[in-house]
Design a protein that fits this description.
Two copies of one chain form a homodimer. Chain A is of the alpha+beta class. Chain A has one domain: 2-Layer Sandwich (SSo0622-like fold). Helix content of chain A is about 40%, strand content about 20%. Chain A contains seven helices and nine strands, in the order H-H-E-E-H-E-H-E-E-E-E-E-H-H-H-E. The first copy, chain A, has helices at about 5-15, 30-40, 80-90, 110-125, 165-205, 215-220, 225-235, and strands at about 45-60, 70-75, 95-110, 130-135, 140-145, 150-155, 155, 160, 250. In chain A, the strands form two sheets. In chain A, strands 1, 2, 3, 4, 5 and 6 form a six-stranded antiparallel sheet that branches. In chain A, strands 7-8 form a two-stranded antiparallel ribbon. In chain A, strand 4 and strand 5 (about 140-145) form a beta hairpin. In chain A, helix 2 runs parallel beside helix 5 (about 165-205). At the A-B interface, helix 1, strand 1, helix 4, strand 4 and strand 6 of A face helix 1, strand 1, helix 4, strand 6 and strand 8 of B.
Chain lengths: ~260, ~260
Protein backbone atom coordinates (compact mmCIF):
# COMPACT_ATOMS: atom_id res chain seq x y z
CA UNK A 1 0.00 0.00 0.00
CA UNK A 2 1.41 3.42 -0.89
CA UNK A 3 1.79 6.17 1.70
CA UNK A 4 -1.27 8.12 0.62
CA UNK A 5 -3.53 5.09 0.69
CA UNK A 6 -2.15 4.08 4.08
CA UNK A 7 -2.78 7.57 5.40
CA UNK A 8 -6.38 7.47 4.13
CA UNK A 9 -6.90 4.13 5.84
CA UNK A 10 -5.55 5.47 9.16
CA UNK A 11 -7.73 8.54 8.87
CA UNK A 12 -10.89 6.54 8.16
CA UNK A 13 -10.19 4.17 11.07
CA UNK A 14 -9.35 6.99 13.45
CA UNK A 15 -12.36 9.14 12.67
CA UNK A 16 -14.80 6.22 12.83
CA UNK A 17 -13.85 5.31 16.37
CA UNK A 18 -15.57 6.54 19.49
CA UNK A 19 -14.25 9.57 21.36
CA UNK A 20 -12.68 8.01 24.44
CA UNK A 21 -12.20 11.18 26.45
CA UNK A 22 -14.00 11.68 29.77
CA UNK A 23 -16.17 14.30 28.12
CA UNK A 24 -16.81 12.14 25.04
CA UNK A 25 -16.91 15.00 22.54
CA UNK A 26 -14.73 17.70 21.03
CA UNK A 27 -14.68 20.94 23.06
CA UNK A 28 -16.84 23.71 21.65
CA UNK A 29 -13.97 26.14 21.11
CA UNK A 30 -11.93 23.54 19.23
CA UNK A 31 -14.72 22.23 16.97
CA UNK A 32 -14.16 24.63 14.07
CA UNK A 33 -10.46 23.86 13.85
CA UNK A 34 -11.00 20.10 14.22
CA UNK A 35 -13.65 20.12 11.48
CA UNK A 36 -11.56 22.28 9.16
CA UNK A 37 -8.55 20.00 9.56
CA UNK A 38 -10.51 16.78 9.15
CA UNK A 39 -12.04 18.15 5.95
CA UNK A 40 -8.55 18.31 4.40
CA UNK A 41 -7.19 15.15 2.82
CA UNK A 42 -3.69 15.74 4.25
CA UNK A 43 -4.71 16.01 7.92
CA UNK A 44 -6.75 14.43 10.67
CA UNK A 45 -6.89 15.24 14.36
CA UNK A 46 -6.12 12.56 16.95
CA UNK A 47 -6.76 14.55 20.16
CA UNK A 48 -7.76 18.01 21.26
CA UNK A 49 -8.58 20.14 24.28
CA UNK A 50 -9.71 23.76 23.87
CA UNK A 51 -8.24 24.78 27.23
CA UNK A 52 -9.54 24.35 30.74
CA UNK A 53 -9.26 25.25 34.38
CA UNK A 54 -8.80 22.12 36.47
CA UNK A 55 -8.68 21.36 40.16
CA UNK A 56 -6.96 18.05 40.75
CA UNK A 57 -6.73 16.22 44.06
CA UNK A 58 -3.30 14.62 44.09
CA UNK A 59 -2.43 11.64 46.22
CA UNK A 60 -1.37 12.38 49.78
CA UNK A 61 2.35 13.11 49.81
CA UNK A 62 2.34 12.74 46.05
CA UNK A 63 3.66 15.97 44.62
CA UNK A 64 3.73 14.49 41.14
CA UNK A 65 0.16 14.36 39.97
CA UNK A 66 -0.62 11.30 37.91
CA UNK A 67 -3.63 12.32 35.87
CA UNK A 68 -5.00 8.82 35.60
CA UNK A 69 -4.95 8.22 39.34
CA UNK A 70 -5.92 11.59 40.68
CA UNK A 71 -9.40 12.86 41.26
CA UNK A 72 -10.77 15.81 39.31
CA UNK A 73 -12.55 18.05 41.76
CA UNK A 74 -13.51 20.62 39.13
CA UNK A 75 -13.06 21.09 35.43
CA UNK A 76 -14.37 23.92 33.30
CA UNK A 77 -13.74 25.13 29.78
CA UNK A 78 -15.38 28.47 30.68
CA UNK A 79 -14.28 31.19 33.13
CA UNK A 80 -14.54 29.97 36.70
CA UNK A 81 -16.10 31.81 39.67
CA UNK A 82 -14.64 31.72 43.17
CA UNK A 83 -17.67 30.07 44.80
CA UNK A 84 -17.43 27.00 42.55
CA UNK A 85 -13.73 26.67 43.27
CA UNK A 86 -14.20 27.02 47.03
CA UNK A 87 -16.87 24.29 47.01
CA UNK A 88 -14.54 22.01 45.02
CA UNK A 89 -11.58 22.77 47.29
CA UNK A 90 -13.58 21.62 50.33
CA UNK A 91 -13.72 18.14 48.80
CA UNK A 92 -9.92 17.80 48.64
CA UNK A 93 -8.38 15.05 50.75
CA UNK A 94 -4.87 15.22 49.38
CA UNK A 95 -2.78 17.91 47.67
CA UNK A 96 -5.14 19.89 45.45
CA UNK A 97 -3.59 21.69 42.51
CA UNK A 98 -5.19 24.32 40.33
CA UNK A 99 -4.10 24.19 36.71
CA UNK A 100 -4.86 26.22 33.68
CA UNK A 101 -4.16 24.04 30.66
CA UNK A 102 -4.20 25.89 27.34
CA UNK A 103 -5.34 24.61 23.94
CA UNK A 104 -3.67 21.39 22.84
CA UNK A 105 -4.16 19.59 19.56
CA UNK A 106 -2.57 16.60 17.85
CA UNK A 107 -2.82 16.35 14.10
CA UNK A 108 -1.60 13.46 12.01
CA UNK A 109 -0.18 14.73 8.72
CA UNK A 110 0.23 12.90 5.43
CA UNK A 111 3.72 14.22 4.80
CA UNK A 112 6.40 16.13 6.66
CA UNK A 113 5.73 19.10 4.40
CA UNK A 114 2.10 19.23 5.61
CA UNK A 115 3.31 19.14 9.22
CA UNK A 116 5.74 22.00 8.49
CA UNK A 117 2.96 24.21 7.16
CA UNK A 118 0.75 23.47 10.14
CA UNK A 119 3.68 24.02 12.50
CA UNK A 120 4.25 27.49 11.04
CA UNK A 121 0.54 28.26 11.57
CA UNK A 122 0.80 27.12 15.20
CA UNK A 123 3.96 29.07 16.02
CA UNK A 124 2.65 32.23 14.42
CA UNK A 125 -0.61 31.98 16.34
CA UNK A 126 1.28 31.97 19.63
CA UNK A 127 1.60 28.20 20.25
CA UNK A 128 5.32 28.33 20.70
CA UNK A 129 5.84 24.90 22.23
CA UNK A 130 4.44 23.11 19.19
CA UNK A 131 6.53 20.42 17.56
CA UNK A 132 6.55 17.55 15.12
CA UNK A 133 6.92 13.86 15.93
CA UNK A 134 8.00 11.43 13.23
CA UNK A 135 7.52 7.82 14.29
CA UNK A 136 9.55 4.90 13.11
CA UNK A 137 7.02 3.97 10.44
CA UNK A 138 6.80 7.54 9.22
CA UNK A 139 3.69 8.48 11.19
CA UNK A 140 3.96 12.27 11.32
CA UNK A 141 2.13 14.17 14.04
CA UNK A 142 2.10 17.84 14.84
CA UNK A 143 1.43 18.69 18.49
CA UNK A 144 0.10 22.21 19.00
CA UNK A 145 1.16 23.42 22.45
CA UNK A 146 1.34 26.70 24.28
CA UNK A 147 3.70 28.02 26.92
CA UNK A 148 0.75 29.70 28.51
CA UNK A 149 -0.11 27.59 31.58
CA UNK A 150 -0.59 27.88 35.31
CA UNK A 151 0.06 25.25 37.99
CA UNK A 152 -0.63 26.23 41.58
CA UNK A 153 -0.63 23.90 44.60
CA UNK A 154 -3.50 24.98 46.86
CA UNK A 155 -3.92 22.43 49.61
CA UNK A 156 -1.81 19.91 51.49
CA UNK A 157 -3.29 16.72 52.95
CA UNK A 158 -6.73 18.24 52.54
CA UNK A 159 -5.84 21.52 54.28
CA UNK A 160 -6.23 24.71 52.26
CA UNK A 161 -2.89 26.57 52.23
CA UNK A 162 -4.15 29.90 50.89
CA UNK A 163 -6.88 32.44 51.62
CA UNK A 164 -10.15 32.81 49.73
CA UNK A 165 -8.88 36.22 48.62
CA UNK A 166 -5.91 34.48 46.97
CA UNK A 167 -8.22 31.96 45.25
CA UNK A 168 -10.15 34.91 43.83
CA UNK A 169 -6.93 36.63 42.70
CA UNK A 170 -5.73 33.39 41.10
CA UNK A 171 -9.00 32.75 39.27
CA UNK A 172 -8.82 36.24 37.79
CA UNK A 173 -5.46 35.33 36.33
CA UNK A 174 -6.67 31.91 35.16
CA UNK A 175 -9.72 33.48 33.52
CA UNK A 176 -7.54 36.08 31.77
CA UNK A 177 -5.33 33.28 30.49
CA UNK A 178 -8.42 31.49 29.20
CA UNK A 179 -9.44 34.66 27.38
CA UNK A 180 -5.98 35.01 25.81
CA UNK A 181 -6.06 31.29 24.93
CA UNK A 182 -9.34 31.80 23.10
CA UNK A 183 -7.82 34.64 21.07
CA UNK A 184 -4.95 32.36 20.08
CA UNK A 185 -7.38 29.64 19.00
CA UNK A 186 -9.21 32.17 16.82
CA UNK A 187 -5.90 33.32 15.42
CA UNK A 188 -4.90 29.73 14.73
CA UNK A 189 -8.16 29.19 12.84
CA UNK A 190 -7.66 32.33 10.72
CA UNK A 191 -4.02 31.51 10.01
CA UNK A 192 -5.00 27.94 9.14
CA UNK A 193 -7.69 29.10 6.70
CA UNK A 194 -5.18 31.41 5.13
CA UNK A 195 -2.46 28.73 4.86
CA UNK A 196 -4.90 26.24 3.32
CA UNK A 197 -6.05 28.83 0.80
CA UNK A 198 -2.42 29.55 -0.09
CA UNK A 199 -1.80 25.83 -0.48
CA UNK A 200 -4.75 25.43 -2.80
CA UNK A 201 -3.46 28.25 -4.99
CA UNK A 202 0.03 26.75 -4.95
CA UNK A 203 -1.19 23.27 -5.79
CA UNK A 204 -3.30 24.51 -8.69
CA UNK A 205 -0.20 26.02 -10.22
CA UNK A 206 3.06 24.47 -11.40
CA UNK A 207 5.49 22.41 -9.39
CA UNK A 208 5.93 23.44 -5.77
CA UNK A 209 9.39 24.69 -5.10
CA UNK A 210 9.04 25.95 -1.56
CA UNK A 211 5.84 25.70 0.50
CA UNK A 212 6.66 28.90 2.35
CA UNK A 213 8.10 31.18 -0.36
CA UNK A 214 5.07 31.34 -2.60
CA UNK A 215 3.18 33.43 -0.12
CA UNK A 216 5.07 36.66 -0.71
CA UNK A 217 4.41 36.46 -4.43
CA UNK A 218 0.73 35.92 -3.82
CA UNK A 219 0.22 38.48 -1.12
CA UNK A 220 -0.69 41.39 -3.35
CA UNK A 221 -3.26 39.35 -5.21
CA UNK A 222 -5.20 38.37 -2.16
CA UNK A 223 -8.25 39.94 -0.66
CA UNK A 224 -7.90 42.76 1.83
CA UNK A 225 -9.85 40.61 4.29
CA UNK A 226 -6.75 38.49 4.74
CA UNK A 227 -4.30 41.33 5.01
CA UNK A 228 -4.05 41.59 8.77
CA UNK A 229 -4.04 37.84 9.19
CA UNK A 230 -1.34 37.56 6.56
CA UNK A 231 0.86 39.98 8.42
CA UNK A 232 0.29 38.16 11.68
CA UNK A 233 0.86 34.75 10.18
CA UNK A 234 3.77 35.35 7.94
CA UNK A 235 6.61 35.10 10.41
CA UNK A 236 8.99 32.28 9.90
CA UNK A 237 9.35 29.32 12.19
CA UNK A 238 11.85 30.23 14.80
CA UNK A 239 13.78 28.56 17.53
CA UNK A 240 11.53 29.10 20.51
CA UNK A 241 13.10 30.36 23.73
CA UNK A 242 15.88 31.89 21.66
CA UNK A 243 14.63 35.33 22.69
CA UNK A 244 14.78 34.46 26.37
CA UNK A 245 18.02 35.90 27.70
CA UNK A 246 17.97 33.41 30.54
CA UNK A 247 18.58 30.45 28.28
CA UNK A 248 22.09 29.76 27.09
CA UNK A 249 21.79 30.68 23.47
CA UNK A 250 24.05 30.95 20.52
CA UNK A 251 22.56 33.16 17.85
CA UNK A 252 22.68 31.96 14.28
CA UNK A 253 24.02 33.93 11.36
CA UNK A 254 21.21 35.63 9.49
CA UNK A 255 21.85 34.03 6.17
CA UNK A 256 21.09 30.39 6.87
CA UNK B 1 27.38 23.41 -0.88
CA UNK B 2 25.95 20.01 0.06
CA UNK B 3 23.84 19.54 3.17
CA UNK B 4 26.62 17.99 5.25
CA UNK B 5 29.08 20.76 4.45
CA UNK B 6 26.44 23.38 5.18
CA UNK B 7 25.67 21.73 8.50
CA UNK B 8 29.37 21.72 9.43
CA UNK B 9 29.60 25.41 8.59
CA UNK B 10 26.56 26.24 10.76
CA UNK B 11 27.97 24.19 13.59
CA UNK B 12 31.37 25.88 13.45
CA UNK B 13 29.81 29.34 13.34
CA UNK B 14 27.37 28.59 16.13
CA UNK B 15 29.91 27.08 18.51
CA UNK B 16 32.46 29.85 17.92
CA UNK B 17 30.07 32.58 18.99
CA UNK B 18 29.78 34.02 22.46
CA UNK B 19 27.14 32.69 24.86
CA UNK B 20 24.58 35.50 24.91
CA UNK B 21 22.57 34.29 27.90
CA UNK B 22 22.38 36.42 31.05
CA UNK B 23 24.52 33.84 32.81
CA UNK B 24 27.00 33.61 29.94
CA UNK B 25 27.76 29.91 30.35
CA UNK B 26 26.14 26.49 30.11
CA UNK B 27 24.47 25.36 33.36
CA UNK B 28 26.47 22.82 35.35
CA UNK B 29 23.81 20.09 35.17
CA UNK B 30 23.51 20.43 31.39
CA UNK B 31 27.24 20.51 30.59
CA UNK B 32 27.72 16.75 30.12
CA UNK B 33 24.83 16.47 27.67
CA UNK B 34 25.85 19.61 25.77
CA UNK B 35 29.44 18.37 25.46
CA UNK B 36 28.38 14.87 24.42
CA UNK B 37 26.07 16.24 21.72
CA UNK B 38 28.57 18.77 20.41
CA UNK B 39 31.18 16.01 20.12
CA UNK B 40 28.94 14.22 17.58
CA UNK B 41 29.19 15.31 13.96
CA UNK B 42 25.40 15.08 13.47
CA UNK B 43 24.41 17.42 16.32
CA UNK B 44 25.09 20.74 17.95
CA UNK B 45 23.24 22.53 20.74
CA UNK B 46 21.84 26.01 20.20
CA UNK B 47 20.42 26.71 23.67
CA UNK B 48 20.04 25.03 27.03
CA UNK B 49 18.86 25.50 30.58
CA UNK B 50 19.30 22.78 33.19
CA UNK B 51 16.22 23.86 35.13
CA UNK B 52 15.67 26.69 37.57
CA UNK B 53 13.47 28.29 40.17
CA UNK B 54 12.67 31.86 39.18
CA UNK B 55 10.92 34.76 40.84
CA UNK B 56 9.81 37.27 38.24
CA UNK B 57 8.36 40.70 38.91
CA UNK B 58 5.74 41.22 36.21
CA UNK B 59 4.47 44.62 35.16
CA UNK B 60 1.70 46.10 37.28
CA UNK B 61 -1.63 44.80 35.99
CA UNK B 62 0.29 42.72 33.48
CA UNK B 63 -0.72 39.13 34.01
CA UNK B 64 1.20 38.05 30.94
CA UNK B 65 4.85 38.13 31.89
CA UNK B 66 7.10 39.26 29.11
CA UNK B 67 10.45 37.78 30.00
CA UNK B 68 12.44 40.49 28.30
CA UNK B 69 10.69 43.31 30.12
CA UNK B 70 10.22 41.83 33.55
CA UNK B 71 12.64 41.93 36.40
CA UNK B 72 14.18 38.76 37.78
CA UNK B 73 14.07 39.01 41.55
CA UNK B 74 15.65 35.61 42.11
CA UNK B 75 17.00 32.79 39.98
CA UNK B 76 18.60 29.60 41.17
CA UNK B 77 19.57 26.31 39.55
CA UNK B 78 19.83 24.73 43.02
CA UNK B 79 17.20 24.04 45.68
CA UNK B 80 15.91 27.28 47.17
CA UNK B 81 15.40 28.10 50.85
CA UNK B 82 12.47 30.10 52.16
CA UNK B 83 14.56 32.95 53.56
CA UNK B 84 16.05 33.78 50.15
CA UNK B 85 12.63 33.75 48.54
CA UNK B 86 11.12 36.00 51.23
CA UNK B 87 13.93 38.55 50.78
CA UNK B 88 13.39 38.51 47.01
CA UNK B 89 9.60 38.80 47.38
CA UNK B 90 10.02 41.99 49.44
CA UNK B 91 11.58 43.65 46.38
CA UNK B 92 8.49 43.05 44.20
CA UNK B 93 6.68 46.16 42.96
CA UNK B 94 4.34 44.46 40.52
CA UNK B 95 2.89 40.96 40.19
CA UNK B 96 5.59 38.53 41.31
CA UNK B 97 5.37 35.00 39.95
CA UNK B 98 7.29 31.97 41.11
CA UNK B 99 8.16 29.55 38.35
CA UNK B 100 9.89 26.25 38.19
CA UNK B 101 11.21 25.81 34.68
CA UNK B 102 12.51 22.33 33.91
CA UNK B 103 15.40 21.33 31.64
CA UNK B 104 15.15 22.71 28.12
CA UNK B 105 17.52 22.04 25.27
CA UNK B 106 17.59 22.89 21.57
CA UNK B 107 19.71 20.75 19.30
CA UNK B 108 20.25 21.32 15.62
CA UNK B 109 20.42 18.00 13.77
CA UNK B 110 22.05 17.18 10.45
CA UNK B 111 19.13 15.12 9.19
CA UNK B 112 15.57 14.36 10.19
CA UNK B 113 16.68 10.84 11.07
CA UNK B 114 19.13 12.23 13.67
CA UNK B 115 16.35 14.35 15.16
CA UNK B 116 14.08 11.28 15.33
CA UNK B 117 16.66 9.33 17.30
CA UNK B 118 17.23 12.21 19.72
CA UNK B 119 13.48 12.72 20.03
CA UNK B 120 13.02 9.10 21.09
CA UNK B 121 15.75 9.58 23.70
CA UNK B 122 13.97 12.70 25.02
CA UNK B 123 10.50 11.16 25.18
CA UNK B 124 11.78 8.04 26.88
CA UNK B 125 13.66 10.08 29.47
CA UNK B 126 10.44 11.82 30.50
CA UNK B 127 10.61 14.96 28.33
CA UNK B 128 7.19 14.39 26.82
CA UNK B 129 6.69 17.84 25.31
CA UNK B 130 9.71 17.50 23.05
CA UNK B 131 9.26 18.08 19.34
CA UNK B 132 11.00 18.65 16.05
CA UNK B 133 11.02 21.84 14.02
CA UNK B 134 11.93 21.73 10.33
CA UNK B 135 12.52 25.18 8.88
CA UNK B 136 11.92 26.19 5.30
CA UNK B 137 15.57 25.71 4.37
CA UNK B 138 15.68 22.32 6.04
CA UNK B 139 17.16 23.48 9.35
CA UNK B 140 16.11 20.68 11.72
CA UNK B 141 15.95 21.36 15.43
CA UNK B 142 14.88 19.13 18.26
CA UNK B 143 13.48 20.96 21.30
CA UNK B 144 13.67 18.92 24.50
CA UNK B 145 10.85 20.02 26.80
CA UNK B 146 9.15 18.69 29.89
CA UNK B 147 5.58 18.92 31.13
CA UNK B 148 6.98 19.27 34.59
CA UNK B 149 6.64 22.97 35.49
CA UNK B 150 5.15 25.22 38.14
CA UNK B 151 3.79 28.75 37.76
CA UNK B 152 2.42 30.44 40.83
CA UNK B 153 1.39 34.10 41.14
CA UNK B 154 2.50 35.31 44.60
CA UNK B 155 2.01 39.04 44.81
CA UNK B 156 -0.20 41.70 43.28
CA UNK B 157 0.95 45.31 42.85
CA UNK B 158 3.78 44.57 45.25
CA UNK B 159 1.53 43.06 47.95
CA UNK B 160 2.23 39.47 48.96
CA UNK B 161 -0.96 37.43 48.49
CA UNK B 162 0.12 34.31 50.43
CA UNK B 163 1.58 33.42 53.83
CA UNK B 164 5.21 32.59 54.56
CA UNK B 165 4.01 29.09 55.43
CA UNK B 166 2.64 28.77 51.90
CA UNK B 167 5.94 30.00 50.41
CA UNK B 168 7.70 27.28 52.39
CA UNK B 169 5.20 24.64 51.22
CA UNK B 170 5.59 25.81 47.63
CA UNK B 171 9.38 25.75 47.74
CA UNK B 172 9.27 22.17 49.00
CA UNK B 173 7.32 21.27 45.88
CA UNK B 174 9.59 23.32 43.61
CA UNK B 175 12.67 21.69 45.13
CA UNK B 176 11.17 18.21 44.67
CA UNK B 177 10.47 19.06 41.05
CA UNK B 178 14.07 20.17 40.66
CA UNK B 179 15.21 16.83 42.09
CA UNK B 180 12.98 14.91 39.68
CA UNK B 181 14.20 17.13 36.84
CA UNK B 182 17.79 16.24 37.69
CA UNK B 183 16.95 12.52 37.54
CA UNK B 184 15.44 13.02 34.10
CA UNK B 185 18.56 14.85 32.92
CA UNK B 186 20.69 11.91 34.12
CA UNK B 187 18.33 9.51 32.40
CA UNK B 188 18.53 11.56 29.21
CA UNK B 189 22.33 11.39 29.35
CA UNK B 190 22.31 7.61 29.84
CA UNK B 191 19.75 7.05 27.09
CA UNK B 192 21.71 9.35 24.79
CA UNK B 193 24.95 7.46 25.39
CA UNK B 194 23.13 4.24 24.69
CA UNK B 195 21.49 5.54 21.51
CA UNK B 196 24.80 6.89 20.20
CA UNK B 197 26.47 3.56 20.91
CA UNK B 198 23.72 1.75 19.04
CA UNK B 199 24.08 4.17 16.15
CA UNK B 200 27.80 3.53 15.97
CA UNK B 201 27.18 -0.22 15.83
CA UNK B 202 24.51 0.27 13.18
CA UNK B 203 26.64 2.58 11.06
CA UNK B 204 29.59 0.19 11.15
CA UNK B 205 27.38 -2.51 9.67
CA UNK B 206 25.53 -2.70 6.39
CA UNK B 207 22.88 -0.38 5.06
CA UNK B 208 20.51 1.08 7.64
CA UNK B 209 16.97 -0.05 7.10
CA UNK B 210 15.34 1.35 10.20
CA UNK B 211 17.07 3.45 12.85
CA UNK B 212 14.83 2.08 15.58
CA UNK B 213 14.43 -1.58 14.67
CA UNK B 214 18.08 -2.57 14.92
CA UNK B 215 18.01 -2.22 18.66
CA UNK B 216 16.01 -5.33 19.36
CA UNK B 217 18.40 -7.44 17.32
CA UNK B 218 21.37 -6.00 19.20
CA UNK B 219 19.94 -6.14 22.66
CA UNK B 220 21.23 -9.55 23.60
CA UNK B 221 24.73 -8.72 22.44
CA UNK B 222 25.12 -5.72 24.66
CA UNK B 223 26.65 -5.42 28.07
CA UNK B 224 24.54 -5.99 31.16
CA UNK B 225 25.52 -2.49 32.27
CA UNK B 226 23.15 -1.12 29.68
CA UNK B 227 20.32 -3.52 30.37
CA UNK B 228 18.23 -1.36 32.66
CA UNK B 229 18.80 1.75 30.59
CA UNK B 230 17.86 -0.17 27.47
CA UNK B 231 14.59 -1.21 28.97
CA UNK B 232 13.88 2.31 30.11
CA UNK B 233 14.81 3.80 26.79
CA UNK B 234 13.25 1.35 24.43
CA UNK B 235 9.72 2.58 24.36
CA UNK B 236 8.52 3.90 21.08
CA UNK B 237 7.70 7.52 20.39
CA UNK B 238 4.12 8.00 21.31
CA UNK B 239 1.46 10.59 20.94
CA UNK B 240 1.82 12.53 24.17
CA UNK B 241 -1.33 13.32 26.11
CA UNK B 242 -2.98 10.32 24.47
CA UNK B 243 -3.08 8.66 27.88
CA UNK B 244 -4.86 11.60 29.44
CA UNK B 245 -8.54 10.73 29.53
CA UNK B 246 -9.41 14.41 29.70
CA UNK B 247 -8.20 15.08 26.18
CA UNK B 248 -10.47 14.14 23.29
CA UNK B 249 -8.63 11.18 21.89
CA UNK B 250 -9.13 8.64 19.20
CA UNK B 251 -7.02 5.57 19.74
CA UNK B 252 -5.11 4.18 16.80
CA UNK B 253 -5.25 0.60 15.63
CA UNK B 254 -2.34 -1.37 16.98
CA UNK B 255 -0.93 -2.44 13.69
CA UNK B 256 0.08 0.85 12.11
Amino acid sequence: MDRSAEFRRWKAQCLSRADLSRKGSVDEDAVEIVQLLNAQEQFFTTSSCAGRILLLDGGINGFEVQKKQCCWLLVTHKPCVKEDMIVALRKANGDAILKFEPFVLHVQCRQLRDAQILHAVAINSGFRNSGITVGKRGKTILAVRSTHGLEVPLSHNGKLMVTEEYVDFLLNIANQKMEENKKRIERFYSCLQHALKRETITNSQTEIKDPFDTHKKKRNQEKSHYKRITEDCDKELENDDADDPGINVTIFPEDY
